[in-house]
Amino acid sequence: MAIKKLGKQTVKFKNPPYIIATSATVGPKEGEGPLKDYFDTILEDDLYGENSWELAESKMLRESVKKAIYKADKNITDMEYMLSGDLLNQLMSTSFAARDLGIPFFGLYGACSTMTESLSLGAMLIDGGYADYLVAVTSSHFSSAERQYRFPLEHGNQRPLTSQWTVTGSGAAILSAYGQGPKITYVTTGKVIDLGIKDPNNMGAAMAPAAVDTIVTHFKDTGFRPEHYDLIVTGDLGAIGKEITEEMVFDRGYNIAKVYNDCGLLIFDNQAQDTHAGGSGCGCSASVFCGYIYKEMIKKNLNRVLLVSTGALLSTTSSQQGQSIPGIAHAVTITNM
């Protein structure tokens, strides 16, 4: 019997896990943005001492895990699971980091929704009594993502104004059955939503319908209203996707304007840094949550947050075959209450 199930797609935890520590690592461009003071590590160059961008991304993820574990005053051997993913084929960055860390590993792929996917599943593991400590982590890298999904950087292709800038960053969160800190109290698992957008340079429009579906379902399942939250924040919809989401949620009876923002708009100064529609990538919501949002929650400036990481489930193959872009969004309620 699903005694913790609430409504259609939401789980309410009986033993909410604590987030006892986080760590955020970002690249040089992100380190020049509005949230620079919230990140644990800012790289001096995006190769991070490695021979490829993919290995640099893997190192970011690995070091974020190590730093979060250190901040939690734990050891790597205390971690019973690592739930992680990235944007690269076969989860290259994540798998190589998991190899080096030696933590029992679940590899996840939810595109840029992977941070809340990992937090959701990690919270279920702890609430279910299957672990006491685990790490949820993800990453992305501008150069590795551009090379896989778009064009070789050497081409210097002009980017349309609807495009977004993949965040070079990683965020790791330590979840625990014990301790202090913000707790994950609810999880609303998203459905794949596809309204037919085919433009891979307009990810915000492709992902927005999934964010809308998850946010509205969360409200219906829980009975919460927007004013229940200090912040409702999507993962990487950028300027275009955020506007679409706000309007579509309003059309369904909820005005989220006063409490709504997007990690892709928080991490960069779009005009000053020329990031067009904003930030994107797995590392976008990961680094913004594990840096800015978590630290503001520790200070009690934010006490109840709905984090909704968003993902575009396309591949180079599906795009080349003319397929539309399916979207996904998972929501987690994180609270000091």
Automatic annotation (TrEMBL):
<protein>
    <submittedName>
        <fullName>Stage V sporulation protein AD</fullName>
    </submittedName>
</protein>
<dbReference type="InterPro" id="IPR016039">
    <property type="entry name" value="Thiolase-like"/>
</dbReference>
<dbReference type="Pfam" id="PF07451">
    <property type="entry name" value="SpoVAD"/>
</dbReference>
<dbReference type="GO" id="GO:0016746">
    <property type="term" value="F:acyltransferase activity"/>
</dbReference>
<dbReference type="InterPro" id="IPR010894">
    <property type="entry name" value="SpoVAD"/>
</dbReference>
<dbReference type="InterPro" id="IPR038369">
    <property type="entry name" value="SpoVAD_sf"/>
</dbReference>
